[in-house]
Amino acid sequence: MRLFVAIELPEAWRVEATAARRWLLDRLLHPSGEAVDDQPGLRFTSPERLHLTLRFLGEVDEAVLPALQQQLAGEVVAVDVALELAALGTFGSRGRPRVVWLGLGGDLDSLQAIRAAVDRALVAAGVAVDDQPLRPHITLARVDRRATPGQRRAIRAAIEEIEAPASARFVAREVVLVRSHLGRDVRYEVLGRYPRASI
Q1: What is the pLDDT of residue 108?
Q2: Does 199 fall in a domain?
Q3: Catalytic residues
């Protein structure tokens, strides 16, 4: 099963992400008020699938799931992280951007502490973790592999022009363990919420 650990986003952030998507599409398809291309070179993440990934696990043996859920419940005992949206950016080189994202600000030290708790749970459950640092972001779109150099330049220029979204403050209170079902329509299934609600 393909898993990741994440923080779900508030509706206000999904609205801001949708507005950024509309702006980018308009800027890329109609840079001077006239349509010059019918393909922006971007594959956008649908608003309902937007999230803040704390740790991507990839393929995990289903037999490990009970131990993983138990360890997450033991390590992630409190989540109280105030976050806010920041400017857009990209991963990849300047000439070949690969991912367009929304940045995050706020209490990033506490966010790193939550990531460390998640990692302790993963290691205790026998799930390998790499040493990649957490770079908090929300993936808005991926650049199509077939995007032309001109499209890539236009994407980079648009990202540099767009204003940062309104900094709607959000206090994260839980993290989720999610299974990703791949296929024509990717579907996410929440397998656990941490800290677990008291009974």
Answers
A1: 96
A2: no
A3: 51, 137
